[in-house]
Amino acid sequence: MFNKYNVIVVGAGHAGCEAAASAANLGSSVLLITMNMGVIAQMSCNPAIGGVAKGQIVREIDAMGGYTGIIADKSTLQFRMLNLSKGPAMWSPRSQNDRMRFAEEWRLTLESLPNVDIWQDTVKEVIVENGQARGVVTSLGIRIEADAVVLTNGTFLNGLIHIGEKKIGGGRTGEKAATGLTEQLVSLGFESGRMKTGTPPRVDGRSLNYSLMEEQWGDEKRGRFSYTNVDIPKEQRCCWITYTNDKVHEVLKTGFEKSPMFTGRIKGLGPRYCPSIEDKINRFAERDRHQIFVEPEGFKTVEIYVNGFSTSLPEDVQLKALRLIPGFENAKMYRPGYAIEYDYFPPMQLDLTLETLKVKHLFFAGQINGTTGYEEAGAQGFVAGVNAHQRINDLHELILKRSESYIGVLIDDLVTKGTEEPYRMFTSRAEHRLLLRQDNADIRLTPIAHKLGLIDDERLEKVNKKIADSDYLVDYMKQNSVSPDEMNPVLEQVGSSPLNQKSRMFNLLSRPQINIAHIAKANMEFSNLLNQYDEETIEQTEIKVKYDSYFAKEMDIVNRMKKMEDKEINPDFDYNSLISLSIEAREKLLKVKPRTLGQASRISGVSPSDISVLMVHMS
């Protein structure tokens, strides 16, 4: 029935879509298998993309030729740049999205790719011969052969939904769980575990009183994720903020005895940084209120996502508590919140390419690796799809370093350190975050994608022009000065010390109160020069000047660390032969099989003295 494919991708969530697209765009024939073609790229939880560190990941995916940023831009309800009051390393783009349009755009994109076929079915087994993935067997009993398989099963592996004392088998509300695959992988020697996540109730927006809530609009000056300048919706939608109170908390507490969270029915660990509302009031008993974000799910639908009210309490308790929140007095609930437990595979069983260590040509991406979030999933899917194609064609693998991308930090953390709770990306996880900003993702990663063949010459030329133009403006500011007569009126307005003599523009822009627009206002020649450049280039120039000394220090650290990162370790290295290593270090090194000395140094349980032993032996 089926011809052999180069790559089979199992699951059409955010990881699966990016995996299928990246492998196909490199030239592989791809079969994307999904249980339900009607929910491709479904935003199962919050209808939003980006946020702190996550927005940086989306821009990185886009810079390398992925689609999450493009799809997000096309379906944006509202866009905000978070943390603008902080330094540029913390600026994080976030969009509220039209859930239905987002999924539709992803499906249309996949259908437009000539190398992608889609099949609706459930995979129950990976075909493994001589330690290598050779295809899959579906629930219909169809055997489909392939050179590589990418598993992106999300929350569907033995998924179990909890609402109060009720337990329902499913990977998402209204959708059945996937069974059999976990058991097969365990029989092959893989270690599995259980995790949990949750989602809030959805309500009818017509039943809410928005006059009792705070309005939250997007940025007046619209931003975007993609560097491709795709068309974005002209209108924006308002979101709102309201708060729980003591009465809400008291009602919620009445359901604790039936809560699967507190009765031990849920065994898996949930996301630390996105706790359920019952977990919040239990852990933070001193707080008399918690913030609730009221977010529309689309331009045309009246469905509302109650962000901050994730819960698995009985549905009657959920509704009673909701109606005590200001603005929700007459709320009508479309569907209750729930928790879901699912199988995952601890990611220390993977190589940095996301290929499994136990089975060749088998790749894992997304929540199967213990992560949470559309953005983290999309990034892993993209990398897994690229590496599946590269692996079967004996081409150079894609491994991004921690010093060049958040994607590199994400995968290195997973593979090197593992995770026992749903992993979420934060800026604090990246030690070189000053270099990994959302504004320079194209500069960092587009050249890499161009070498792979994912980015065309025209787009690379655009990036090179941005670099050259920014460098020219920086040099111009180093060589040209402004006089006290020109600049002092502006300095007085912003409360900065006046000039006594001419000063280089570069030095002036280093002042915290001064931005590039202030200098342009004082100097007409510079103002006319800036008019020739786009906003991205001007922003890049200002950041380069203001943080010049910090960048130099950061690059010095990166270069010093590079010696360890570039020191490769043979994957078949016999750590047991080094009796000077601690027993724990030997166990961990044998399990992870680090690629480099730098990766080895980040493994929990491997001490600096163990690294010294390795360095001596390798030298």
TrEMBL record:
InterPro entries the record matches: FAD/NAD-bd_sf, GIDA_C_N, MnmG, MnmG-rel, MnmG-rel_CS, MnmG_C, MnmG_C_subdom, MnmG_C_subdom_sf
Pfam families per record: GIDA (PF01134), GIDA_C_1st (PF21680), SAM_GIDA_C (PF13932)
Compartmental location: Cytoplasm
Domain annotation tRNA uridine 5-carboxymethylaminomethyl modification enzyme C-terminal subdomain: ranges: 545-616
Chain segments annotated as coiled-coil in the UniProt record: none
NCBIfam families (UniProt xref): mnmG_gidA
Entry function: NAD-binding protein involved in the addition of a carboxymethylaminomethyl (cmnm) group at the wobble position (U34) of certain tRNAs, forming tRNA-cmnm(5)s(2)U34.
Oligomeric and partner information: Homodimer. Heterotetramer of two MnmE and two MnmG subunits.
The protein, known as: tRNA uridine 5-carboxymethylaminomethyl modification enzyme MnmG
Source organism (scientific name): Sphingobacterium chuzhouense
Gene name of the record: mnmG
